[in-house]
From TrEMBL:
Record carries keyword Magnesium: no
Species classification: Bacteria, Pseudomonadati, Pseudomonadota, Gammaproteobacteria, Celerinatantimonadaceae
Name of this protein: 4-diphosphocytidyl-2-C-methyl-D-erythritol kinase
Annotated Pfam families: GHMP_kinases_C, GHMP_kinases_N
Gene3D superfamilies assigned to the protein according to its UniProt record, in alphabetical order: 3.30.230.10, GHMP kinase, C-terminal domain (3.30.70.890)
Naturally occurring in which organism (per UniProt): Celerinatantimonas diazotrophica
Underlying gene: ispE
Amino acid sequence: MTNPIFFPAPAKLNLFLHINGRRPDGYHELQTLFQFLDIADELSFTPTHQSEIILEPPLPGVNNSDNLIIRAANLLKPYTDKARGVKITLKKNLPMGGGIGGGSSDAATTLVVLNRLWQCGLNNQQLGQLGRKLGADVPIFIHGYAAFAQGIGEQLTPAFPAEQYYLLLTPNAMVSTAKIFNHPDLPRSTPKFPPEQYCYEKTANDCQGIVTDHYPEVAQALKWLVEYAPARMTGTGCCIFAPFTTLSAAKAVADRCPAQFHSRVCQGMNQSSLYKKLEGLGL
């Protein structure tokens, strides 16, 4: 029996996140810089001749109707020429509600891989349009390369941030993205700037203050890590990260991490590990 092939669904960081305004439809105008990390969930796909989408193991507390992996697979069904099903096995390595894109990345990997296995024939732009129905971050994982994002996250400009090392802390908290973006005190008027003027030290995460006010575990993690490096939150949290120029420097701080936080050292990547895997397999 052939061993299943597992495809990565990599994590991402928002190296900064500025909220520039709120549109009449309720969506927020923003600017952010996405970079991938060398840590990932892993998914395998076994096509079947039945129409059922099976996910093993099921995600605790998540109904199939809400599961982004199953929803992604179902979005592709109209583009197949016959009844298609699949058994999907998930190795969940990334925290849920961490702000590093676990669910969105899982959905993107499902769209990209099944598009090939089911021979749907969609290009990445078309897959991105499907992905946007699942979440604002799904298209960047389909895009597969580090990018400066604007608008509601759909306007992507290629970016090449340094592929440095990061210490990533995961506090014991699950942040509600909807709660943060709907909060009346969220800053919504940060001026826009051209992508070429990006500088880490001159940017921030506009969601960070609201999150640390309402989630003390996140505030504690940030307070500890900022003593060692210019730390900030990614996305709407809960994960906190800090950049380091060397692996040894990141590991030295990780060794001091309090037991209440889960820590890991990882490296930034400007190409998604999913596409590296697909290239290696000739897919």
